[in-house]
Amino acid sequence: MKVHFYSSLQEGLFQQALRRELGKLGVESEAVHAVTLDEYRSASGSVGRALIRAKMYPGYMWKCAHKWMRGRSGQVNVITTNPFFLPYFATKFLGPRRAKTVQLLWDLFPDALIEAGVVNKDSPSVRWLSTMTKQSLERCDATVFLGEHLKSYAESVYGRALKGFVIPVGADGDPFVDSPPQLDESCSWLRLLYCGNMGRMHDSITMSEALGNLASSRVRLSAKFFGTGQGFRQVRQAVTGGEGNLSIEFGPGLDDKQWVCAMKDASVALVTMRSGAERVVMPSKTYSALTAGQAILAICSRESDLADLIHKYDCGWIVEPGNTEKLTELLEYLSLSPREVHRKRLNAYSAGHKYFGANVLAGQWLDLFRTIEQ
Fold first, then answer.
1. Alpha-carbon distance 59 to 16, whole Å?
2. How many CB atoms lie within 10 A of CB 187?
3. CA angle, corner 158, sides to 152 and 163, nearest 5?
4. CA 198 to CA 294: how far, in whole Å?
5. Rounded distance, CA 23 to CA 324, Å?
6. Do 25 and 127 fall within a single domain?
7. DSSP label at residue 209
8. pLDDT, tens digit, for every residue of 174-218?
9. Which residues share a beta bridge with 164?
10. If we measure between CA atoms, which residue out of 148, 179, 178, 170 comes closest to residue 354?
11. What is the pLDDT of residues 53-78, one digit of tens each?
12. DSSP conformation class of 192
């Protein structure tokens, strides 16, 4: 079997690990992308970002269409919603050639744009995008949803997928397989980490206000933020520094080696979703945090796939968006409760490696491929 994975952005560590594990199961695969991670991270200025967007959207569409028209596709083609229109056009080009098409629903459009405030729900573009989403669900041989809540919402709005599967994003556990969490009571600092984009679908306000409240307290907290997005600016502006007990660090996105080191050093991962985002996204950074042995501090709705995961594996804490007072109190409590943090970290590490490693999820993908080939 030959599988092609399509995404405009080069695959990260997990996608590489997933393809490696599929190879062990006898599945040959190839990744097709538009820009590398280095190109994406290094793009700066309005011109540089415009060029990257051109390569990731119209340029990538042309690259894929040209490939498909020449009959160069896999037996199975996994098409992500990056860009959002690619699964729809894949059914147009690949259907007649009898190649199997699997839609990997990273984000649900146009709902993600509506929740982010980018488009109005009554605009013509929303009707056009809704039609594309509905037809992609109907025509793709299978659609992979990232969680049960996401599947339920999408199908309630756009109709049932031809074949719907729920497969988590997962993570590459290999960098952390020999690094289980260790309890060090001599270090009383709570080490909080956020890595990745903090954009319109993330709740930066609740965290910003809580850190602002703690700036004049005696809490011993180290919070590190690495990535991009408007939320970073909001957090930076809200935190002016404490009295030696609140350490806040900001930096750009990390390369793979730096990222692994940062993940091993942190005790708690911050994962945020604004109200409404729980219907359209599931933060993939959650799974890497689990395999790294970080407890999850989630700012999200309690009716979400993220909250369900935390409850099921007892691996973190949930704060509703906007509840600044509770988050402030929780951070104060956690900074004084290293054993409780350590217990949650052990649960996270166990769940990450047992249920969400690439070696486990590769088996679920193989079952999907076999199902649609029948």
1. 23
2. 12
3. 65
4. 19
5. 46
6. yes
7. H
8. 999 999 998 876 666 889 999 988 888 888 889 888 888 887 777
9. 143
10. 170
11. 999 999 999 999 988 988 888 789 99
12. E
Q: 343 lies in which domain range?
A: 174-355
Smallest CA-to-CA distance from 140 within 80, 202, 222, 214 is with 80
Q: Are both 99 and 232 inside the same structural domain?
A: no
Domain co-membership, 351 together with 256: yes
Stated pTM of the model: 0.91
* CATH number of domain containing 16: 3.40.50.2000
Structure tokens at 9: 């952005």
Q: Is the predicted pLDDT of residue 242 greater than 60, yes or no?
A: no
216 and 295 inside one domain: yes
Say if residues 249 and 227 touch (Cβ distance below 8 Å).
no
- DSSP at 294: P
Residues 368 and 342 in one domain: no
Which residue do the tokens 């911050």 mark?
A: 270
Q: Which of 7, 242, 15, 230 shows the shortest CA–CA distance to 102? A: 7
Instruction: Tell me: cis bond preceding 110? Omega within 30 of 0 counts.
Output: yes
Query: What does the DSSP 8-state code read for residue 57?
Result: I
206 and 310 belong to one structural domain: yes
Buried-state track 304-324, b at ≥16 Cβ within 10 A, e below 16: bbbbebbeebebbbbbbbeeb
Q: How many domains does the chain have?
A: 2
Of all helices (H) and strands (E), which one includes residue 69?
helix 60-69
